[in-house]
Automatic annotation (TrEMBL):
Residues 227-308 form the Methyltransferase regulatory domain. SUPFAM superfamilies: S-adenosyl-L-methionine-dependent methyltransferases. One of its GO terms (biological process) is methylation. Keywords: Methyltransferase, Transferase. InterPro entries: CFA/CMAS, Methyltranfer_dom, MeTrfase_reg_dom_prd, SAM-dependent_MTases_sf. It comes from the Bacteria. The keyword Glycoprotein does not apply. The lineage of its organism: Bacteria, Pseudomonadati, Campylobacterota, Epsilonproteobacteria, Campylobacterales. Residues 45-164 form the Methyltransferase domain. It comes from Campylobacter magnus. This is Class I SAM-dependent methyltransferase. The keyword Transit peptide does not apply. GO terms for molecular function: methyltransferase activity.
Length: 518
């Protein structure tokens, strides 16, 4: 019965279907390899996603790895139907979407094995018996060297959020999340807004109000989040955060071993703090205990845990000095030229210069080893702990390709996806990039993107849109001082579209959306 209620609420308020970089199988493969495991290469892997919504997290991966086979399961019939329609329109053949209860999935797949299992945004939002079924599914359906990625809400960070969630649910208890999710959210946010306004004007300053006052003032922190996220994270019947150490213990009971986290969820500079390292060494014996300590110190609220079969645990490389880099690729997630200056006196300076030059592409770890000599692991630790650089490890390379007529074009394998995104049939899909990230490409931008076919220069594209405005007696607009101002002169329109197209091209270059013309 509870699963029926969950399915109904997700059909009433569809979750946006898009990609998550932390679940990109090239990244899962690389992180597992770093830790000494040997999962199957992504280009021929079998992948299962639990709670796939409409398949948005699989589309880019299927486009990149055309010989891999992807299967997605979800409890919502509406989501699966929407996903199948999208896949047919896009023309993707290597994704299969199934409407299936997680508790029935192990029996459904029988003796089938998967090299990668993904469960993003599911585990904390189902009751404990379904959580147990997810872990058992991973244990029984993973291939011998396979890995699973499960994301979930964690304590202590969610302890504070729970006060907000509980108040929102209490204030909107007369409205059903299954029948009227949007109205329920409006009532809940209205209650938070009242609390926030009340605490601004109340001068009693009773000390016992301190914690609730801080927590209930969360309106400013959550009001910018997508409404579908707020409905399911803050108003849904199920939301069961767990301490990291308890999650690992449950995984071990199911026959699984913890490998790594796909995204550090705290200030990485604490990793290099000598006093903290000494306390950690003296007080906690296991890696899990040490990570749990960091969660306490940083109020961690979310994790992406990578798991493997328990029989593989003895092969894990637990010390960063022993990580296996050979054959992998490394890149930075965001470019900051200040890094060159800040790293001048660091052992990792030459490496960060190479990574900045390659951005948004990658360099091979073999090349990184040549740059750093015998100190690659040390330099990587320095980049993370001292310079707070967000790194990405991948099992496939990415190249920095700029758009230039005659030399490059928008990726041909993405044309079907882009046409679907621009169509009226697209309701809740966004552009999922080759790195399995997300880019908010507006439908109105798609016409410009289609012109980036290697035959049209940026000047050609700008001229096209200026000509359209002149021909149709139309004008773009800007918001100036809160007012909509039309850009009517041809010269101003040329400057407007030049800026807009330049920004779009730059964004698409950063997302590795171009390919060279052979």
């Amino acid at each position: 019965m509870i699963n029926d209620a969950i399915a109904k609420s997700y059909e009433a308020a569809n979750y946006a279907s898009h990609a998550y970089e932390q679940s990109f199988i090239a990244n899962l493969h690389a992180r597992a390899r770093l830790r000494g495991l040997n999962p199957k290469a992504p280009n021929s892997a079998k992948v299962l996603e639990i709670g796939c919504a409409s398949g948005g997290n699989l589309i880019a991966q299927a486009l990149v790895f055309k010989d891999a086979q992807f299967t997605g399961v979800d409890l919502s019939k509406a989501q699966i139907k929407n996903g199948k329609t999208a896949l047919e329109k896009i023309g993707i053949k290597n994704i299969d979407l199934l409407c299936l209860d997680i508790c029935d999935a192990t029996a459904h797949f029988g003796s089938q094995k998967f090299d990668y299992i993904i469960a993003h945004g599911v585990y904390s939002w189902v009751p404990p018996f379904v959580q147990k079924a997810i872990l058992e599914l991973c244990s029984k359906l993973l291939s011998k060297d396979g890995v699973a990625m499960i994301s979930y809400n964690v304590y202590p960070g969610w302890k504070f959020k729970e006060i907000t969630r509980d108040f929102m649910r209490f204030a909107s208890s007369d409205v059903s999340v299954e029948d009227e999710p949007e109205r329920k959210l409006d009532v809940a946010l209205g209650a938070l807004a009242f609390e926030q306004a009340f605490y601004r004007t109340d001068e009693t300053n009773d000390s016992y109000q301190l914690v609730t006052r801080q927590a209930k003032a969360a309106l400013g922190m959550i009001s910018h989040l997508p409404r579908h996220y707020l409905i399911h994270d803050y108003l849904e019947l199920c939301n069961y955060p767990a301490y990291f150490c308890d999650f690992v213990a449950d995984a071990q009971d199911a026959g699984l071993a913890y490998v790594d986290d796909m995204q550090l969820c705290f200030d990485t500079k604490v990793l290099g703090h000598e006093a903290l390292r000494q306390y950690e060494k003296a007080s906690f014996a296991s890696r899990v205990q040490k990570e749990q300590m960091h969660d306490f110190l940083n109020a961690t609220a979310f994790r992406h845990s990578l798991l493997t079969l328990k029989e593989n645990e003895s092969a894990l490389k637990l010390d960063y000095k022993d990580l296996e880099f050979s054959g992998l690729f490394i890149g930075i997630k965001a470019k900051s030229q200040s890094l060159k200056e800040r790293s001048k006196n660091c052992a990792s300076h030459d490496l960060i210069c190479a990574l900045l030059d390659a951005y948004p592409g990658t360099i091979s770890c073999d090349e990184a080893s040549r740059i750093t000599g015998e100190r690659l692991a040390e330099c990587i630790f320095e980049l993370i702990s001292k310079l707070d650089v967000a790194l990405c490890f991948s099992s496939v390379p990415f190249n920095a390709i700029k758009y230039e007529a005659g030399k490059s074009r928008i990726r041909a394998d993405y044309l079907g996806f882009l046409r679907f995104l621009a169509s009226p049939e697209n309701k809740n899909f966004v552009l999922c990039t080759p790195k399995n990230g997300v880019y908010a490409l507006h439908k109105n931008d798609c016409e410009a993107v289609f012109m980036m076919d290697g035959r049209h220069s940026k000047a050609d594209i700008v001229a096209h849109f200026v000509e359209l405005c002149q021909k149709n007696n139309a004008a773009p607009s800007r918001i100036i001082d809160g007012k909509k101002v039309l850009i009517e002169s041809k010269k101003e329109q040329e400057a407007y579209f030049d800026e807009a197209i330049s920004t779009l091209i730059s964004d698409l270059e950063a997302q590795c959306m171009f390919e060279s013309i052979s």
